[in-house]
# Entry
Amino acid sequence: MNDPHHMSDDDLDTPVDDITALDADALSWAIHTRQVSCRQVMQATLARIHRINPRFNAIVNLAANERLLAQADERDAMLARGESMGWMHGMPQAIKDTGNALGFPTTYGSPLLKDAMPAVDSIFAARIKAAGAIVIGKTNMPEFGLGSHTYNTLFGSTGNAWDPTVSAGGSSGGAAVCLAQRLLPVADGSDFMGSLRNPAGWNHVFGLRPSMGRVPHWPRPDLWVSQLSTDGPMARNVRDLSLLLGVMAGRDARAPLSLADGPRSYAPPAETSARGLRVGWLGDLGGHLAVEPGILAVCEEALARLQGDGAAIEPVAPNFDAQRVWEAWLVWRRALVAPAVAAVIKTPADRERIKPEALWEHDSAQGLSFADFMRASAVRSEFYAQMLKLFERFDVLALPVAQVWPFPMEQHWPKQVAGRTMDTYHRWMEATIYATFAGLPALSVPAGFDASGRWPMGLQLIGPPQADAALLSAAQAYQNVSGALLARRPPEPG
# Structure
């Protein structure tokens, strides 16, 4: 097979007898060089999941051991014949519960969809399978993916990988916890309002929201307007993140706005430097964003690492009206979320089984006119042009990935942040909307921890249009100067 690894046996930093501690590319190398069998990988993964998942509740609808081991044996038989399906050959993978994977219900965390079996794989899931991965189950998420806190009445709550008494973030909270706790080598997620970036930041892993159209999103009821949400990769290092993006990305005619261009590989050189990188630090947007104490300082410490490697860091004031952008955002979000909620409300009794925030989105959209939507679209178009102006001066823009530290599990969402009352259930996530609204790639890198050292925080890097590869290069440079921070691991459950 073509070698995607560029590795040798000496590059395996972790002994292969500790299989679940291997990062994805090292695991792929170990499988393809027959240092471990696919059965051994599956056995080790399932043993860790059965031991640890009850503590965190990150994986749901896990398939039976016998079924998964039989699939691992099939992958081993292929290797014995000199055949490989690709980079993910024999890797266990759980799909976020927004994605279709045949044989598993796509529940969106809703009790109304607990038995919703898909008739076809999502494009990205089909590609992950075609690359050799074995789908073992789904990862947990908030109901309908709303709110960056992974809880629902169908499966329950997912605790943070570093402190299960606080939120894992969301909506890709289950995926992020699986990565941090070594239940999966890589993970997929989806991102509408920071759903990849926020849980990545709160669990000390990497999460990439790709450019709009980079990863085709299908099937879906609407293929033309619903472009605020995208699937994307999550990983414990930049190389794994890049390689998974390479599996997920690429044109598909069934998704008419998907991108055809892009490199054959997104993986940057290991020795990438930050020298010459121009970073615009937006901070709290000149005081517009409510941010809890300590978060900006942790992010500035992260930026200082890049500066020490030759990057130019410049604080920059936003050249857009943030409140006007927020109001336009609310219109778009309601317009896109409301139909998804409406689709599951078949009877008045169904309303009683849906979270209040979903009903608020649905009900708030009922008086929305096409003229309202087009006015909001014009604001969005103006905002995009303003972001382009910033990229004439900077290669990357930086913001905190979250405005609060992980909060207690029993709290549905922060009602106040830094003394300010939040006027919606998602106002505390406002920092994530700018990349989404402009269709730009954005990547969360681990930035540091709170004063207690228990709770992680992420730094959000935003790149120019379709500059996914350049953004991954910036993240690689950051990784290269952040070794001690990135080496930190969450406490091992007893």
Observations:
- The chain has one domain: 9-486.
- The two ends are 41 Å apart (CA to CA).
